[in-house]
Amino acid sequence: MANMVKAWIDGVQIEVEAGTTIIDAASKTCHAIPKLCYHPDLPATANCGVCVVEIENSPMKRACCTPVTDGMKITTNSLNLRKYRKTLVELVLSNHEVVCPTCEANNKCNLQSLANNLHCDMHNIPNMQTKRAVDDASPSIVRDMNKCIACGRCVTVCNDVQQVYALTFSGRGFKSIVTTPFDKGMNDSPCVNCGQCTVYCPTGALREKNDIDRVWDALLDPTKHVVVQEAPSIRVALAEEFGMEPGLATPGKMYAALKAIGFDSVMDTNFSADLTIMEEGTELVNRVGAGGPLPLITSCSPGWVKFMETYYPHLAANVSTAKSPMSMFGTLAKTYYAETKNIDPATIVSVAIMPCTAKKFEAQRPELSDSGYQDTDLVLTTREFIRMIKECCVDFKNVPDIQADPGMSFYTGAGTIFGATGGVMEAALRSAWFLITKTELENVEITAVRGMEGVKEVTIEIPGLGPVKFAVAHGLGNARKIMDKVSQQLADTGKCEYTFIEIMACNGGCVGGGGQPFGSDIARRARRGLGLYEEDRNLPKRRSHENPEVTKLYAEYITEGPCSPKSHKLLHTNYFERSVYSGAAVKEATHKH
Amino acid sequence: MNYYRSHVLIGISDTALQAGVKDFENALRNELAKNNLQDEINILETGPLGFFGKGICMTVYPENVQYSDVKAEDVAELVQNHFLKGRPVKRLLFEESLKGQVNFNYANRIVLKNSGIIDPENIEEYIGAGGYEALEKALLEMTPNDVIDVVKASGLRGRGGAGFPTGLKWSFTAPLEAEQKYIVINADEGEPGTFKDRLIMEGDPHILLEGLTLAAYAVGASKAIIYIRGEYKLCIERLRKAILQANEYGVLGEKIFGTDFSLEVDIKVGAGAYVCGEETALIESLEGNRGNPRWKPPFPGVEGVWKMPTVVNNVETTANVPFIIKNGAEAFLQHGPAKSSGTKVYTLMGDIARPGLCEVDMGTSLRSIINEYGGGMKKGIKFKAALVGGAAGVFLPDRLLDVNMDFESLKEYAAVLGSGAILVMNENTDIVDMLWSVLRFFRHESCGKCSPCKLGTAYLYDLITKIKKGEGTKADLDQLVSIADMMQKTSFCALGQSPIMPIKSALDNFRYEFEARLNK
């Protein structure tokens, strides 16, 4: 039994494990402490000072990083504390561009609600701000230092959690700001566009590059045929924003909202998730047969792919050549779909609703144009999609469910669980089992790869192959752990204990993506993941190779089957080695074949 | 060995080097040789001489005549008159009028007892003056715990500002099991107007090495790092030489005095941020990170450099240790009052007759420090205020000058000993301007990590600038105090907690000057 300590918070006795911080102890009472920079998912930066509390016989301390000690008497609210917190937040406001009504973070902003709760007066302290240029050169992330309050969450998440090292503090004192290496901007940095900084930013200083207007331009242009796809994790991230149970899967309402907004054809990324499994699963089986290169590593997560290209280019040959589900859909929309529907691909605008800021970068990769056009034209994050729903005044909660347009929208349970960490692995195993053994996996739920643990390992006995070891990592810091191990083993022995590895750039997988609603914490991500597994359980088909639209595609269009030359032309890609300073592609790491 | 009838001590400091002291010294040697005096007059290089004249300074013994601002072209006259005829050159004497009035307090010195007397670049002179005897005693006759006990009993408190009992600090780290422990010497002296550590290191680098070796022995550290300001070029050079010599003589390095105790000393040169004088920011900087402070706990004594137990001590603190070990706690307790034993080194500046360094017992009144050791005010001007403790210090008016300078007495005045900087201001000094300078300094030196300090120092500067320009209101004066008060309570480290002291003392003691500047 852990060592417990007793203390009093505002006269209420509490008992917590030794080492628990005051802020965490207080959150277990009904008396949370006002806070600004602190986020429960992240190690405390202790930058803001708002959470100071009084402790008997001690100077005031920050609750976020002061452990409770036995017999401690803590006061969280007093005349002085109120005064100090209010003054402090007013100071923060004096160096913040206050444009709440039009800010992307409006109603989600921690500073906004705190200032309101503490009854701050905007006019007590005059504005001290010097206007700074907004860094919007990145295709994914806008960095607006006028809104930054230097809480340090983004620096922590980028360096400690994701270990990308694209953000840091520079300059000192009043002039200290969060910036990129050599102050060159996000687009000229090792940023992999994962967008976790935007999710944790309390004020909207970091946000996605907004493409809503470009989508409207296409939608309202009568000469354009606008096709839309939605990633698996979108359908479980909308309910919470419209007064419904968080994590509830609402695909029917999602399609209805997209139709209401005016998309010509509403199909589904889940279809191409199933297709990805056919390609990647076949690739896995082929590589196992050919003896390598193994391990095979997934390639769906664009944040991970750029991370790999930047920090582990020597492993590029191990990464699946299969395009991501979004890019497969994009290519097929301007080839297969265009031909089937007899639409000039030049008039097609392919839009993707993604939980992800890195998808905006992926869409712009020059190599992803196998349709003869840019495969995916525009990417909207979940947040942008929600704004469009609100702009169109769609009553999301009450809109009747509809079906997606057929062609590239049917999906199995395997496709939908792509959105949660371990989902691609589980989906791949469901079909790889079939491809290898020619029998169906009886129990399709491989629970060992589910859940929020950072690195998951499982060994499965596959008839004909024996025990095969798999690994799943989510969050790039965890990816590093696995990749360092793989690199070491390959360097030492030329072999690796793992056969297949799933990597997702964001904690929780796509349900925790950088484009998901602001402030989506670990707990919320887990809820969304459960929503996807729930949907999987209730779908009639749960294995990708059972998807009739996928079968139809292979029967009628890519007739030689997965990993055939035509499939390679349309559905596979290659990778580049990138500069760790600028993120720019330096040379090819693998060739397209 | 030769016997000389006279010894000339030339103070080698950064100022003297800039004034061309090496050329002067060569000229003097040549001139003496020309007059065949080279075997009668000995020339010695030493550290700061304990008085601060302009340019090149030197002292001639046995007559104890002090010269300042001497130049190469004065050499012929000096040799002809002083060394041949025995008549000091009056026009070159240092503040002749003060001779005999200034108390250098050599008899009572602990830390600076060798400074200005021995050649700091020669370990034999330090050993000749009784150096490394304490270390020998400790290593051969005492256990590490004995050393801690003696230091505890001596009542030595940290001289870097906070005044934490040194023996107690060591006793937290000593019992910890760790693969590596560190002694870090904080020589990042950044408090404006403070240069005591520089002069200790320039004048007697071995006293620091001996002190830190004792500390390392006491806590079981085998590595020591001296984190020193990059500007302190001469200190760095002398410390490097001293480390080499100490290694050669077996008082540092492997198996010191033939025992199993070994210590490796490194020097890390700082890059000039004030906040890096804060021990946890210093450790971050040592590790190659941005110099932002770390949260305590864990304290460095438990988790410091590379997460290993680390004792961080100030230069002056450490330089006291050899005396304590050699002479015992009782001898140290002879100096100063009970709860603030020992001596304190002050740097005296401003409108004072003899600016420079003095080392006096703790508890000496500020008035006597200024008058007795600093020679009083410069001729013809009157005292107005002293800024005591550097930028993070307090403004004291004449009526508070009888305060005894020790940790406990100053507490009653809401003042701190701080770094020991004493800036004396004359009656024409504008306190508003002074406070403006202090607050500009804080704005410049805030690391920017924590909001109260980053934003608070900026806003305080805006407020004082407004007041300085004559545009301030009474509300702005109140705002100065309330912001600084909030900063004191909510800031992460001592930097943000400090501006309240100069602000409050300036307003308490000189409020009329601020009110006179308001926009009415």
Describe, in plain words, how this protein is organized in 3D.
- The complex is a heterodimer of chains A (593) and B (520).
- Chain A is of the alpha/beta class and 593 residues long.
- Chain A is 33% helix and 14% strand.
- Chain A folds into 3 domains: 4-77, Ubiquitin-like (UB roll) (Roll), CATH 3.10.20; 90-208, Alpha-Beta Plaits (2-Layer Sandwich), CATH 3.30.70; 213-588, Rossmann fold, CATH 3.40.50.
- Chain A has helices at residues 22-27, 79-94, 110-117, 153-161, 196-200, 212-219, 251-261, 269-290, 302-311, 325-333, 336-341, 358-363, 382-391, 413-416, 423-437, 476-493, 522-538, 548-556, 565-571; strands at 4-9, 12-17, 52-55, 61-62, 73-75, 141-143, 168-170, 177-179, 206-208, 225-230, 265-266, 296-297, 348-354, 378-381, 455-462, 466-474, 500-504, 576-578, 585-588.
- Chain A starts with a strand and ends in a 5-residue tail after the last strand.
- Chain B has 520 residues and is an alpha/beta fold.
- Chain B has 4 domains: 6-102, Glutaredoxin; 123-333, Rossmann fold (3-Layer(aba) Sandwich); 343-426, Ubiquitin-like (UB roll) (Roll), CATH 3.10.20; 431-517, NADH-ubiquinone oxidoreductase 51kDa subunit, iron-sulphur binding domain (de novo design (two linked rop proteins), Up-down Bundle).
- Chain B is 41% helix and 14% strand.
- Chain B is globular.
- The mean pLDDT of chain B is 91.
- The chains are: A alpha/beta (593), B alpha/beta (520).
- Chain A binds chain B through residues 36-37, 44, 46-50, 52, 59-60, 62, 65, 67, 80, 83-84, 87-88, 91-92, 94-95, 125-126, 128, 149-150, 152, 168-169, 171-176, and chain B through 273, 275, 290, 292, 295, 297, 443-452, 454-459, 462, 482-483, 486, 489-492.
Could you provide a short overview of the structure?
The complex is a heterodimer of chains A (593) and B (520). By secondary structure, chain A is of the alpha/beta class.
